Structures are given as structure tokens and as C-alpha cells.
Amino acid sequence: MTRKEQKEERRNAILMTALDLFVKRGYYETKISDIASAVPMSTGLLFHYFGSKEELLIELVKMGAAATGSTGKMADIPASVFFESFLSQLFEYSKAQPWVFNMFVLMGQARRSGMPEEARKIALSASGIEDTAKIIKKGQKEGIFRKGDPKLLSTCFWATVQGIMEEMAVNKEFKAPDPEWLIAILLK
Hints:
Arc Repressor Mutant, subunit A; 2 domains
């Protein structure tokens, strides 16, 4: 492994450790020394990678925001197929990569008042609601989805997904529901 690869691996270990601790303990209750100890590395070395705990949070929120943008890339998929495909892929990927559950929790936390403002702004700007509302509107025109404000329907859909992902983050025994259950929120 090259030195560059080692550095990137260590950086990712710091990020995933911080994500886990921020979700379990909360951002303000997690100390930078807790993260360093859990990696494990010295606090001084951790500061070589990230200048502060807030910088770590912002990097994690940027990662979450980047993933949120993936719904816009799927706008060409037929509305009837989009939601089932998206949910199936999300739940499967999350099972293989459990940190995704934690990312949903962190993004929900980062949106709340009292969080560092830069992280909060990034989290608030990252939303699949608008992109998903466009797909819902398309499905309404096709006669597949119920009538109603597409943005409100999208918000309800995402609130349900958020709740499921949070439950899966804290309850390892909780199984992902059938995507059809969630799609039923939208169907005529």
C-alpha cells in the first residue's frame, strides 16, 4: 500500500469513527480525543487530518449531501419504477454498508438548530425532496400517483424513509420493510 493510500485509509477511518460516535453520543458530547482513541491514533495526529471537530462534521455532512443528489440523476426512470428501484437499492446498499444508516441520522441531526451553522446550511440545502417531487408530478400526470401537492407527498415519503433508516441505525434486528409499503403512500 502506498503512503497516499495509507493516508486516505486513515482519513476514512477517522470519518467513519466520527460518524459512529456523533450518532451514538451526539456531536456536542463527542470529544475529539474520543474519536482519536477509537480510531486509534493520537489526538495530535488526528488534527493533522482534520483541524477541528467541526471540520470533521462538515466533511461528513458534505458526504451526506453528495449522496442526496443521486435522486436527481434518476429523473429519467419511469415514475412507476423509480421508487421501488430506489428503495430496494437503498436498503440493500445500507445492509452492506451500515454506515449509511448513521449518515441518515447525522443528516437529520445536522439540520436542527443549535448545530454548527456551516454544517446546518449544507444539510438543509441537501434534500431529495425537490427532485422526488418532480418524479411524483410526472407520476401524477401518468395517473399512477395520488393527487395532491407533489412537494408535500415527497416530504412525507422522505420523512418515512428517514424514520426507517434511523430505526435501522439503532435497532440492528429491524428489517427493512417491503418498498411497496412505502410506495403505497404515493399510489392512487
